[in-house]
Amino acid sequence: MIAAPSSGSGKTIVTLGLLRAMRNAGFAVRGAKSGPDYIDPKFHEAACGHASVNLDSWAMRSELIKGLASGDGTLVVEAAMGLFDGAADGSGSAADLSIQLGLPVVLVVDAARQSQSIAALVSGFVNFRSDVQIAGVILNRVGSDRHDSMLRAALAQIEMPVFGSIKRDNRLELPSRHLGLVQAQERSDLEKFMQNSGEIVGNSVNMNALDNLGRDFKGLYEKTSIPPLGQRIAIARDEAFSFVYPHMLESWREQGAELQFFSPLADEAVPNHVDAVFLPGGYPELHAQRLSNASKFHPSLNQAAARSAIIYGECGGYMVLGEALIDADGAPHQMAGLLPVTTSFAERKLSLGYRNARLLSQLGPIPAGSVLAGHEFHYSTVVAQENDRPLFAASDALGQDLGQLGLQRGSVSGSYLHMIDLRPEAA
Predict the structure, then answer these.
(1) Is 262 within a domain?
(2) Which residues 6+ apart lie within 8 Å of 161 measured at CB?
């Protein structure tokens, strides 16, 4: 596991560089991300050529985590936030995942503004929890050879192995926006960035030593998750609808569902033979005018609703199912009108956190009363809503009641919740 004391330490860059460098060196390697994240796994895939998965120790059952982690080659897991940061109840941290899977931790430390004090910082992380194995550190944003020598001398006093030292380099930069990094598929220079990061990290880190930390982890574990919404499912996929957990789609295929992808941004119609439509989250607020003008997409979605196909929208997909979406400049854009809700990106408010969500009525094959583990992460707000049937009764990670989430009208449902797994009582 590649972890750090806090967000912003550079663990994503280091992870991507390691994945590309190890691939270039002939290692069989694949990536994973601790916790809920749609963006970083796509960068992992671009770096090493293999699909990356999310491993979430708060929202996923143990058997699902083990099933997703098992496979061939070295698994490099990128932690989220700081090593010990988790949900509001204190669980679900990258440290918890490392214990669950028996993963040694390599701590990426931003050394830009410290020298000898690094030993005190690392020592604190080593001694905070005796059940977490911190195998060594990678020094990041080192200023000079002299700076590197000072850092290593300090760490030698606590007998902490140093796996590498990465100097400051402007080529190791990734642009971001309000929900995280700019998506991998939007970067025209992505391959050049991967080549640079692989070269820089590969020349700065002892990859053989890191690979030797690996342990055999294979077995037949459960990989199924949320049941497929139908036998034939149309899934929106483009720059506006890109937040999908690969494990969920893979489990739908394993359960016999036929998946077909289409692009609302390209004004592609919903295939007329499907019995379910899934509109994932993403960035519809950045493409509101194009989505509003999609003259084939809107009628085909309404036709699917008219024949009672199951239609489900998550977060951005929920916004598109509504009456209108107000962009950051305050301009309204007409959406599909299948749910009586208007959302606004002009009136921003961060909603972030894990959720337990109990279905108030059936959602496709998922019966009423089922409890779904998921998360919210959005800045848009609901500014108008009719009192239709709510979809979920939700609580946060501390068990505090959040009231009702989402809407359901006929066969159309949506909410801001991103589904991750079924809770054991409903699995």
Answers:
(1) yes
(2) 135, 136, 137, 209
